[in-house]
Amino acid sequence: MPQSSMSMMITLSLLLNIAVLVPVTGSIMGHAGWVEAAFGPASPARGILLSVYLAILLCSGALLLKPVPAMVAALLLVQVIYKLTTPFTVGSFTNPVVLSNLAIAAFHSGTLAVIWNHGRQ
Hints:
The protein is mainly alpha-helical and 121 residues long. 84% of the residues lie in helices and 0% in strands. It is globular. The protein starts with a helix and ends with a helix.
């Protein structure tokens, strides 16, 4: 696969992270009404989740400015693993957060495959 295809997939995955996490982290910090239904009441656990989301957001922004494929792959791999385990840790395959996690994991898996295949050439 050409370098340009890999660059495009990396850019799309990082932009997807940013597009999802800017409103989510802003809503958590702003105590939006839907947040409690999606993530539960304000608690140390929700604060930790916010920290993880902010870390992914900041890394995505930095990697968008300076994309290093190995670093992008590490970020996306961690995301895919945690997103694929959420139906089991939440105990539901119908929760909206779980469903969005699975969709994002599918997209990021495609990017990881492109990065992997490019590295093998």
